[in-house]
Amino acid sequence: MERRHPADGGRPGAGPVRAVQRGHADVRVGQVRAAARALPEHAHRQDRLPGRRDTDQRRRHQRLRQGRGRDVRHQQRGRVLAGRSRQRGQGGRGPAAGAGWAETGAVADERRIPVRDLVDDREPGEGRQGVRGHGRRRHTGGAGREGGAAAERRRLGLRRDQGQRAAPAVPAGRTRRAVAEDARRPAAGGRGERRSDRGEAAARPVGGARTGAHRHATAHAGRLRRRGEERRDRPAGVPGVTAPNLVVLLADQWRGQDQGWLDGARGRASQVRTPHLDRLAAGGAAIAGGCSSSPVCGPSRGSLLTGRLPHQHGVVANDLPLSPRLETLGTALSGAGYRTGWIGKWHLAGLPRDKWVPPAARPGIEHWAGVDCSHDHLDGHYYVGAESPTRIDFVGYEPEVQTDLAVEFLAGQDAPFFLTVCYNPPHDPYDSVPERLRTGYPIERMTVPPNTPGSDERREVQRLYWSAITAVDAQIGRILAELDRLGLRENTIVVVTSDHGDMLGAHGLRAKQSPYAEAVRVPMVISGPGVPACRPAGLLGLVDLAPTLLGLLGLPPIGVYGRDLSDRLRSGASLRTELLIGNWVSFDNGYDQGIGEWRGFVTDELTYARTVDGRPWLLFDDRADPWQLNNLAGDPASASRVAAADDRLSALLAESGDGFWPAGRLLTELGLVDDWNAREIALRGDRARLLPTR
């Protein structure tokens, strides 16, 4: 079968790329790029960047592996982004206008590469996550391997091992994973400390021996407390040592409509209880117009930290690396004398997912206690260490453990400091919420939104999702209480937000990557010195957060597309009137559900989206139709409104320098072909959609 390559956008006259059938060869790690190179090069491809030759790529990747030399990939990416303004004369549609979004990702749907061993150097029994899996992993990467019940469970975002787990054949108080780690590691560099169900440190590892990792962990809190004393004389940024502190609490996949203080929003009473967030909102800026420019993890986190849109910062899909050359909120604050720390999920360091993130891949972040990406909310692990990693396994609920770490960090600080805590819930698996935290939502009293097909099963998933939100809210309360106890609250700006929302069955969809309000709208509460109690109208995007927070701190803003809205927050004035949104590259859940590449914009009154082939897709009057049930894009009576919205989108695309290219060409122009192919092989297995390389 022949398919057009996404980089060619399905253009008339473009030659096809043949989908390659692969045998069950034993392909190893070193052959990842060779497997991608097996795809024949397109005869008419003239859109490659200058100098992208075999030898250049090999030298570039050798330099990256060895950790020396200049990062040519990001240098090339910078040239492309800097010159993007030359594309503005194309009316925002880009050179690939006319390409159907269903075609843009289809390099080789028939491509079948058995990759269980492709990039798999795991120990027997370990899970599959990223290139090297650690811990339990629900997704196996293959299609058609699960039975009907298992596939339905994965569709609903439930764990495969829901219910009672088999009792492990390990000593009391230990986890199976911990025993496996001990067996693999020598005593001198063994397993890190375990934490109890409440996140408290266990006295010492079973058997009484203190391993190197355990000694590291037990000294961790003491070092944090001493760090404040060591930094008392450290020069601070403007306006000196009295500069406000900054705490960002980022929950993953928390949709904006599920906040208690928004009671009555969209014409419906809130059923979600968030008492601590509600109190924070009552004393600060409670922004109903919080939005993610790209409703998916990596791209939105890149926008939050840089003030740039995905095509400007390069993280156009999950598991692609953020360029260390970009200025971020962390680098700006670190340069101003702030002590910086990050706890929890990062998801901006490429593959593998389960890893310690080194300083070069977390620009400006000094203190580290997290993992690049993990969805083990129960009995998981994280890595500590500013310059070298130590793995810490814990027993209990991850948000509670992360809050313990945040409390330790706060206790050791002397202002100013910047701390981000990334809670993974309410991200799926939804049933990872402990039973003790599920009691507040009787399923018989719950109702699903009018745009969500109702069922008992759907209500159960919603109950678990809301339980996770309330559990995270309790941890927000703990951090606020600790700031009060330490006398830091009055001089600390606190932000609660999320990287994107969750469809949770609305419009028959799950997860994210769509333009609907459930995916795009996020919580946005900002409280602290200089921020009055207000509910400002308008929008504040994650892309605006870095420049706005720097403005509130009295520091120069960063970013390209993001705006410094600090003056408007101080006065309670209206914020943005419109915000560009999009799905720059369709992948994983979005691609599997038929969601392709799209761009759009939101205002207080409407939502509009266009597909990569130039077709108006969605237009909703969000005031008259808050649940987005009546799509005006296909209504002849609304043709003039659709045309006006499409013209406005073209202008916004031109202003941002977005050529709105199909995924393949965008990845090629950004120099991310190898990174994309590696993530597809590692995470999609025999369903990988690969781009040709030289």
Automatic annotation (TrEMBL):
The keyword Ribosomal protein does not apply. CDD domains: sulfatase_like (cd16034). SUPFAM superfamilies: Alkaline phosphatase-like. Residues 1-241 are annotated as: Disordered. Residues 58-67, 131-140, 212-226 have a biased composition (Basic residues). Keywords: Calcium, Hydrolase, Metal-binding. It holds the Pfam family Sulfatase. PROSITE patterns: SULFATASE_1, SULFATASE_2. Residues 28-38 have a biased composition (Low complexity). Residues 244-554 form the Sulfatase N-terminal domain. Residues 39-57, 108-126, 151-163, 178-201 have a biased composition (Basic and acidic residues). One of its GO terms (molecular function) is arylsulfatase activity. InterPro entries: Alkaline_phosphatase_core_sf (IPR017850), Sulfatase (IPR050738), Sulfatase_CS (IPR024607), Sulfatase_N (IPR000917). Belongs to the sulfatase family. This is Sulfatase N-terminal domain-containing protein. It comes from Nonomuraea diastatica. The lineage of its organism: Bacteria, Bacillati, Actinomycetota, Actinomycetes, Streptosporangiales.
